Amino acid sequence: MKAKEAISPRARKGASEGLPHICGELPLLEVLPLLLDSPTRELCVDQEGESLGMIDQSSMLEALGHMITPRDDSSILTVSCTPADYSASHIARAIEDSDVHLVDLFTTPTHDGKLNVTLRVRCSDPTPVAHNLERYGYTVTDMYGDCSREHTAVAERLLALKALMDV
């Protein structure tokens, strides 16, 4: 997405005085740090010398939300590594070795000089993916997945088998 796609519909007319100006073609991920650095948390969006409108925190959050497609069939994992050990292709290979697809990948620097890599993968139980990532040398610091449905089905099957064996 581009800056011009995140313009606030609530922008006030004539309120762009004194605001930092950005180009409407600037990628949205480049706009975010500029918005956070702006004292008013607002930016004026221009294209070819004409003001298109403003981006504020709400419109930016909404635009970023549209970039992340909601999914019911995914899990979230966070891994930690040094910048020298970070490789998106290496991480993707570790995930796909689990027969799982990588949906999203976000990196965040930490205060101790490492990187936190947040991954969204297409599976309900992230445990096999976590084991593979650790096998590839990454430290899994957090994981979330809705695997309760699978555990319920397994428990029901075990109870049925137990009942069958008792007959």
Tell me about this structure.
The chain contains 5 helices and 7 strands, in the order E-H-E-E-H-E-H-E-E-H-E-H. The protein is of the alpha+beta class and 167 residues long. It is elongated and about 80 Å long. The strands form 2 sheets. A 4-stranded antiparallel beta sheet has the order 5-6-4-7, with helices on one face.
What's the tally of helices? Answer: 5
Strand order of the largest sheet: 5-6-4-7
Radius of gyration, in Å, reads 22 Å
Number of strands: 7
Question: Strand pairing plus helix content: what structural class?
Answer: alpha+beta
Low-confidence stretches: none
Main β sheet profile: 4 strands, antiparallel
Q: What fraction of the residues are assigned to beta strands by DSSP?
A: 25-35%
Residues in helix, % = 25-40%
Would you kindly provide a brief summary of this structure?
By secondary structure, the protein is α+β, with helices and mostly antiparallel strands. It has helices at 28-37, 57-67, 88-96, 127-135, 148-166; strands at 21-23, 42-47, 50-56, 75-81, 102-109, 115-121, 139-144.
SSE order and pairing:
Elements: E1 21-23, H1 28-37, E2 42-47, E3 50-56, H2 57-67, E4 75-81, H3 88-96, E5 102-109, E6 115-121, H4 127-135, E7 139-144, H5 148-166
Parallel strand pairs: 1-2
Antiparallel strand pairs: 2-3, 4-6, 4-7, 5-6
